[in-house]
Amino acid sequence: MKEDLITKYPFIKSGLKEYFGFGKPLSEFLEENSNYLADVSRDILDVVNGKDISFPIEPDERVKKFILAKILLTFIRDYFVSARYAIRERKILYDNIELEQDHRNIMLVAKELGIKFELRDGRYLVSVQSFLKNAVVFNDKELKLCNQEMIEGRVVADRRIIAKLIREAFYRIYMEEVNSLSSFPEEVSPILKGYAEKIIVRGGQIRQERANLGPLNTKAFPPCLTMIISQMSKGMNVSHPARFFLVTFLHRIGLSNDEIFKYFGEVPDFAEKITKYQIEHITGTGRGREYMVPSCNTLMSLGLCYKETDELCRSGVINHPLNYYKRKNVRRGPERKNEVNGEKTNH
Ligand code: SF4
Questions:
Q1: How many CB atoms are closer than 10 A to CB 195?
Q2: Ligand 1 in contact with 305 (CB < 6 A)?
């Protein structure tokens, strides 16, 4: 396989086989590449800590590190950790597809990821099934089926759309693979354990930091969120971005998907299946990635900010709804107990 191709797309199976070696035991591969394994372990830790990393440009190193990262992430099996790493990989893949000069390479990558399409006059005709399976980016108007041109029952995609579909297919498959239950040969676990330890500890710390936002305290909700909840409880049909904000916020402060779902009960276009799917998608518990809570600036630009109704927001010290919640939750510490004990958890 061509070296530049495997460097850009290290997940292509024929290339993987070439670099892994035929019939080689996993323990042998790990020991032979222990220097790369140490680098990969550091890279994953950096990504978890929010740092940027670059990928090698030399084919042997690029492919072996790609394989090693997958092995280590499968061993760790932490959704948050693997999502951070997969997002970095998918970004590189997207950039490479956008810049790709050779249509045949795009065809090869798409086929590898199970996307069915035909190249006609420089445009890609994608089957509706492949399109829907991968066009799962929440709120991306470019990927809505109703915004697509259709020919002969297929979606006409330009390079940008095809790059997005490939990016999403890669992410979905990568996440499914590294988060599925796998058993490692007895002699392999002790090798991987040493490289995984720091990452596992850091992943746990981050979860703890998230939990430090405190138990549910609806009195500490920022006015923007309270407004959405109030509108929904009155049966008003709130906008898509408002629902997105509600789900990301409630997920981030620790509510389960079922608890989040209860907030949607009064919405007029209530459709249980779709709502559940969207919650799973936004919170990253389905096949999607975990989305961040929008900042105050974003909410303002969407017309969802109600800062004028609240003293703390008006003071100008709040730049994120979670900061608001954290501040109020800390101040009102003792009152929280009642809500946690079940006296006031519903709305
Ligand atoms: S300032 Fe931020 S927290 Fe306050 S209402 Fe506006 S968006 Fe919400």
A1: 22
A2: yes
Q: Compute CA distances 158 → 16, 43, 104, whole Å.
A: 29, 33, 15
294 lines ligand 1 (CB under 6 A): no
pLDDT tens digits for 259-318? 888 888 655 454 677 777 788 778 876 555 678 899 999 999 999 999 999 999 999 999
Q: What is the pTM of this model?
A: 0.66
Q: What are phi and psi of 256, to 5 degrees?
A: -75, 165
pLDDT of residue 345: 31
Sequence letter at residue 198: K
> 312, 328 in Cβ contact below 8 A?
yes
Three-state DSSP state, 118: strand
- 3-state secondary structure at position 23: coil
How far is the centre of ligand 1, averaged over its atoms, from the C-alpha of 320 (Å)? 7
Q: Which of 221, 306, 314, 319 to mutate to test the pocket of ligand 1 (most atoms within 8 A of CB)?
A: 306
Report which protein residue has its CA nearest ligand 1's atom 2.
296
With H, G, I as helix, E, B as strand and everything else as coil, classify residue 298: helix
Q: What is the pLDDT of residue 212?
A: 62
Nearest residue (CA) to ligand 1, atom 6:
305
Q: How far is the CA of 42 from the centre of ligand 1 (A)?
A: 37
Segment 215-225 mean pLDDT: 88
